[in-house]
Amino acid sequence: MGAFAEHPAAAGRIARQDLYAFDNLALDGIDALLFSMHADQRFLAARAARIAAYIERGGTVVANGHIAYPYLPEVGGYIPSPGQGLKDLAIHRVAAHPIWDGVSEQDLTFRRGVAGFYGRGGHQPPAGATVVHTVGAQAQPLDIIYRVGAGRVLLHGGNDLWQYGGNDSTARIAPQLIGWLFGGAA
């Protein structure tokens, strides 16, 4: 998260916090909570009601990884891809979204020539959610965006979105994610 927080597009608007200080964090005035795929989901699950209330009041949550301990409202658990062949790991865009504008499915599918880094399974989305990307022939929902009350949730069922940005079109993800976070687009 360090490089993402220091990205020029962030302009000092992203502050890293210790996850275990979450109970003492004043959420009023915080526009978004960003949870890494490495976040302690047991800890977060014990605080699911606080996270849901934050979203309902208008907050944004970006969560990455495989949800094993539910801490986000309305979303189902992680379902791994049934196979590990290329057809099971191919990323497919099913809805346009400004975070991924200009990012090719090929660059999401392959990183340094290897498939599977972006995602290897998905989550059951809540009713009314927008599924942006699916993975594999089974079309498992990988990138899901949905509203909860006045707020919104972006769940990416793979490695942290902010880690992408090499010498390919995935370099667009971080600045466009920052724009989405602070620009307010659905």
Give the biggest sheet.
6 strands, mixed
Q: Which stretches are low in confidence, meaning pLDDT under 50 for 5 or more residues running?
A: none
Q: How does the overall form come out from the CA principal axes?
A: globular
Which CATH class applies here? Alpha Beta
* Reported CATH architecture: 3-Layer(aba) Sandwich
Strand content: 15-25%
Distance between the termini: 23 Å
Helix/strand-derived class? alpha+beta
Query: Which radius of gyration do the C-alpha atoms yield?
Result: 16 Å
Strand order of the largest sheet: 1-2-10-9-8-4
List the total number of helices.
6
Mean pLDDT: 93
Number of strands: 10
Helix content: 10-25%
User: What's the number of structural domains?
Assistant: 1
